[in-house]
Amino acid sequence: MQDCIFCKIINKEIPAEVVYENETVLVFKEIHPAAPVHLLLIPKKHIPTFFDLQQEDAGLLGDVQLVAAELGRKLGLEKGFRLISNCNQDGGQLVMHIHYHLMAGRPLHWPPG
Ligand code: 5GP
Ligand code: ZN
Fold first, then answer.
1. Ligand 1 mean position to 29 CA, how many Å?
2. Which domains does the chain have, with CATH numbers?
């Protein structure tokens, strides 16, 4: 999608610190980290919000979560991590391309603000 900042990162039109990539998923470092480990996991397919998901996208979201588990192991995050996705205005979604924040490296408070 032309005006989507995350699609531009996928297409290497703007730089990002990529830490993992496979056929369907890209992972890069959050530009304003809120935890010692703060990554953004995105499907390469442009889907604006959860409300835009189709049944055929179910496997894609599974792929993202499997990558989260793989990175959790690779990065030694056995103490735990948080995987969170903001949806629309009240959810605090700023970038309209579905993404998951993977945060770790400190105890994370619950509930979030
Ligand atoms: P949201 O609020 O939509 O869940 O989170 C979007 C996140 O993307 C924000 O935390 C923001 O800091 C991050 N972000 C926005 N633009 C860029 C960028 O160009 N590069 C990186 N690495 N992160 C970005
Ligand atoms: Zn996009």
1. 9
2. 1-33+53-80 (3.30.428.10)
